Amino acid sequence: MTLLASAFLFDLDGVLADSTASVFRSWTTWAHRVGLEPTELLPKVHGRRAIDTIRAVRPEVDAQAELDFLIGLETTDNHDVVPIPGARELLSALPLDAWAVVTSGIEAVAIHARFHWLGHNRDLLSIIGSVAQIEIVVSIAAISLPTGDVSRNRFGDDR
User: Fold this and answer.
1) Is 68 a catalytic residue?
2) 108 and 89 part of one domain
3) Is 13 tagged catalytic?
4) How far apart are CA 80 and CA 83, in angstroms?
5) What pTM, to 2 d.p., does this model score?
6) In which domain, by residue range, is 95 found?
7) Is 157 part of any domain?
Protein backbone atom coordinates (compact mmCIF):
# COMPACT_ATOMS: atom_id res chain seq x y z
CA MET A 1 0.00 0.00 0.00
CA THR A 2 1.27 3.47 -0.86
CA LEU A 3 0.50 6.37 1.44
CA LEU A 4 1.12 9.92 0.27
CA ALA A 5 1.07 12.59 2.94
CA SER A 6 2.97 15.74 3.75
CA ALA A 7 2.62 15.27 7.52
CA PHE A 8 1.44 12.77 10.11
CA LEU A 9 -0.33 13.15 13.44
CA PHE A 10 0.19 10.34 15.92
CA ASP A 11 -1.63 9.55 19.11
CA LEU A 12 0.75 8.53 21.87
CA ASP A 13 -0.70 5.84 24.12
CA GLY A 14 -1.36 2.65 22.21
CA VAL A 15 -0.01 4.04 18.94
CA LEU A 16 3.57 5.08 19.71
CA ALA A 17 3.94 3.87 23.30
CA ASP A 18 2.56 0.96 25.29
CA SER A 19 1.74 2.42 28.69
CA THR A 20 -0.98 -0.07 29.58
CA ALA A 21 0.64 -1.39 32.77
CA SER A 22 1.49 2.07 34.10
CA VAL A 23 -2.03 3.36 33.41
CA PHE A 24 -3.53 0.28 35.07
CA ARG A 25 -1.40 0.67 38.22
CA SER A 26 -1.91 4.43 38.52
CA TRP A 27 -5.67 4.38 38.07
CA THR A 28 -6.02 1.31 40.32
CA THR A 29 -4.17 3.16 43.07
CA TRP A 30 -6.35 6.22 42.55
CA ALA A 31 -9.55 4.13 42.54
CA HIS A 32 -8.64 2.66 45.94
CA ARG A 33 -7.77 6.16 47.21
CA VAL A 34 -11.27 7.48 46.41
CA GLY A 35 -13.25 4.34 47.22
CA LEU A 36 -13.98 3.08 43.70
CA GLU A 37 -13.78 -0.43 42.34
CA PRO A 38 -10.88 -0.47 39.84
CA THR A 39 -12.62 -2.96 37.55
CA GLU A 40 -15.48 -0.51 37.11
CA LEU A 41 -13.23 2.53 36.68
CA LEU A 42 -10.54 1.26 34.31
CA PRO A 43 -12.77 0.89 31.21
CA LYS A 44 -13.67 4.59 31.57
CA VAL A 45 -10.18 6.10 31.59
CA HIS A 46 -8.83 5.48 28.09
CA GLY A 47 -9.17 8.11 25.39
CA ARG A 48 -10.32 10.94 27.60
CA ARG A 49 -8.66 13.57 29.72
CA ALA A 50 -7.90 12.41 33.25
CA ILE A 51 -9.57 15.43 34.81
CA ASP A 52 -12.78 14.67 32.90
CA THR A 53 -12.73 11.11 34.20
CA ILE A 54 -12.16 12.31 37.76
CA ARG A 55 -15.03 14.80 37.52
CA ALA A 56 -17.34 12.18 36.01
CA VAL A 57 -16.75 9.45 38.57
CA ARG A 58 -16.11 11.52 41.72
CA PRO A 59 -17.63 14.99 41.21
CA GLU A 60 -17.42 15.75 44.93
CA VAL A 61 -13.60 15.65 45.14
CA ASP A 62 -11.12 18.41 44.38
CA ALA A 63 -10.47 17.37 40.78
CA GLN A 64 -7.24 19.33 40.42
CA ALA A 65 -5.78 17.85 43.61
CA GLU A 66 -6.69 14.35 42.46
CA LEU A 67 -5.25 15.06 39.03
CA ASP A 68 -2.01 16.20 40.64
CA PHE A 69 -1.94 12.91 42.58
CA LEU A 70 -2.39 10.93 39.36
CA ILE A 71 0.28 12.96 37.58
CA GLY A 72 2.66 12.10 40.41
CA LEU A 73 1.90 8.42 39.98
CA GLU A 74 2.14 8.36 36.20
CA THR A 75 5.33 10.42 35.93
CA THR A 76 7.20 8.22 38.39
CA ASP A 77 5.82 4.79 37.47
CA ASN A 78 7.06 4.40 33.93
CA HIS A 79 9.70 1.67 34.13
CA ASP A 80 7.77 -0.55 31.72
CA VAL A 81 6.47 2.03 29.25
CA VAL A 82 7.90 0.92 25.92
CA PRO A 83 7.60 1.96 22.30
CA ILE A 84 5.12 0.08 20.16
CA PRO A 85 7.20 -2.13 17.85
CA GLY A 86 8.36 -0.06 14.88
CA ALA A 87 7.39 3.32 16.37
CA ARG A 88 10.94 4.50 17.02
CA GLU A 89 12.06 3.47 13.55
CA LEU A 90 9.07 5.11 11.91
CA LEU A 91 9.58 8.44 13.68
CA SER A 92 13.32 8.37 13.00
CA ALA A 93 12.64 7.86 9.29
CA LEU A 94 10.33 10.88 9.04
CA PRO A 95 11.55 14.46 8.65
CA LEU A 96 11.24 16.36 11.93
CA ASP A 97 8.76 18.82 10.45
CA ALA A 98 6.53 16.09 9.04
CA TRP A 99 5.03 14.66 12.21
CA ALA A 100 3.59 15.61 15.56
CA VAL A 101 2.12 13.87 18.57
CA VAL A 102 -1.37 14.76 19.71
CA THR A 103 -2.76 13.30 22.89
CA SER A 104 -5.57 13.76 25.36
CA GLY A 105 -2.96 12.87 27.98
CA ILE A 106 -1.31 15.29 30.33
CA GLU A 107 1.77 17.01 28.92
CA ALA A 108 3.99 16.15 31.91
CA VAL A 109 3.03 12.49 31.68
CA ALA A 110 3.36 12.39 27.91
CA ILE A 111 6.82 13.93 27.90
CA HIS A 112 8.36 12.43 31.03
CA ALA A 113 6.73 9.04 31.23
CA ARG A 114 5.60 8.06 27.78
CA PHE A 115 7.95 9.60 25.25
CA HIS A 116 11.31 9.20 27.00
CA TRP A 117 12.22 6.14 24.93
CA LEU A 118 12.49 8.05 21.66
CA GLY A 119 16.06 9.19 22.26
CA HIS A 120 15.53 12.11 19.91
CA ASN A 121 17.08 15.58 20.28
CA ARG A 122 13.83 17.21 19.24
CA ASP A 123 12.22 19.70 21.60
CA LEU A 124 9.47 17.47 22.96
CA LEU A 125 7.43 20.42 24.17
CA SER A 126 6.89 21.43 20.58
CA ILE A 127 5.41 18.12 19.50
CA ILE A 128 2.78 17.52 22.14
CA GLY A 129 -0.56 18.98 21.09
CA SER A 130 -2.68 20.98 23.49
CA VAL A 131 -6.33 20.26 24.15
CA ALA A 132 -7.34 23.13 21.83
CA GLN A 133 -5.13 21.71 19.09
CA ILE A 134 -6.59 18.25 19.66
CA GLU A 135 -10.12 19.60 19.24
CA ILE A 136 -9.08 21.18 15.94
CA VAL A 137 -7.42 17.95 14.79
CA VAL A 138 -10.51 15.95 15.72
CA SER A 139 -12.65 18.34 13.71
CA ILE A 140 -10.37 18.04 10.69
CA ALA A 141 -10.13 14.27 11.07
CA ALA A 142 -13.90 13.98 11.16
CA ILE A 143 -13.96 15.54 7.73
CA SER A 144 -10.95 13.88 6.11
CA LEU A 145 -10.83 10.31 7.47
CA PRO A 146 -12.39 7.52 5.45
CA THR A 147 -15.83 6.56 6.61
CA GLY A 148 -16.03 3.66 8.99
CA ASP A 149 -15.94 2.76 12.60
CA VAL A 150 -12.78 4.54 13.74
CA SER A 151 -13.55 3.86 17.41
CA ARG A 152 -12.76 0.19 16.77
CA ASN A 153 -9.80 1.00 14.50
CA ARG A 154 -11.77 0.02 11.41
CA PHE A 155 -11.87 2.04 8.26
CA GLY A 156 -14.45 2.02 5.50
CA ASP A 157 -12.33 -0.24 3.31
CA ASP A 158 -11.95 -2.85 6.09
CA ARG A 159 -8.18 -2.67 6.23
Assistant:
1) no
2) yes
3) yes
4) 10
5) 0.70
6) 8-18+83-150
7) no
